[in-house]
Amino acid sequence: MSARLSDYDYDLPKELIAQRPPEHRDDSRMMVLHRDTQTIEHRRFRELKTFLQQGDLVVLNDTQVLPARRFSNDGAIEFLFLERLGPRRWKCLVSPGRKMRVGATAEIGNVILCVEKITSDGERIVVLNEDIDLYSGGSMPLPPYVRRESDTEDAARYQTVFAHTPGALAAPTAGLHFTPEILGEIPHTFVTLHVGTGTFLPVRSENIAEHRMHAERFFISHSAAATINDAERIAAVGTTVVRVLEAARREDTKLRAKEGTTDIFIYPPYRFHAVDVLLTNFHLPRSTLLMLVSAFAVRDFLLRAYQEAIRERYRFYSYGDCMLIL
Asked: Do residues 248 and 220 touch, judged by C-beta distance below 8 A?
């Protein structure tokens, strides 16, 4: 195990960062990691079903990404609207921040926004001159490594086909590979975790144990809890599902219906209580997501797999290929 930030680093050629989704959702490649034998296979995502066993249950995150990205009328300020705090008050991120100090104003459409407060995290609390839904007319908040403006394709493809509950500021990207046809062939259920900006905050301390996650809202229904408890093996789709199930199962031997928040930070040598199989995309170096997957797959084995993925020219990050860890 390692608690050093530098031990979760790797070099990625920029051309391997996927800038567009594949033509079809299930076209993605799938690297399969066998933890018991420390071996690797190169397959296609549409073969997922062949790796599932009798009694397996696939658990997915049905959060829906909000079109939370807006620009001021003059194009000078980018806003990411995080949360509606009440009538005419919102929490948001702005860029560049130097232009939006306390008292500064900007216009979006016919609405004037004024910065009321800057939080300790650099977020802005803004007050509007009239009450409107700022998600209406917004665009998908693509991650910064997608170096282009979002467009109509992203409105559909940066959203899972099973997205149901609005609230996320980023997609649960391991779920982007699924089609209705593939879902129809496998036993599955849904939980909800609204992915926030905290998931992607950089780890700044060399001792990763000092990092603190932002809390994110989650929900587990009674029917989902019962279905999960009856399964022999749980295959989590994405790190968000892992965080929901591990946070909920930490407190009880059986999963229970629950609604709340979690700031769970999973890194080696974490012992997993709820998840047996993980489908995940490839993650940024030095990220909390890479640390979570390192805890699941063993860091040395995982980083060896990442080097093989680079040699084999896999596509990385949100719109990229995936990895199945058995």
From this structure: yes
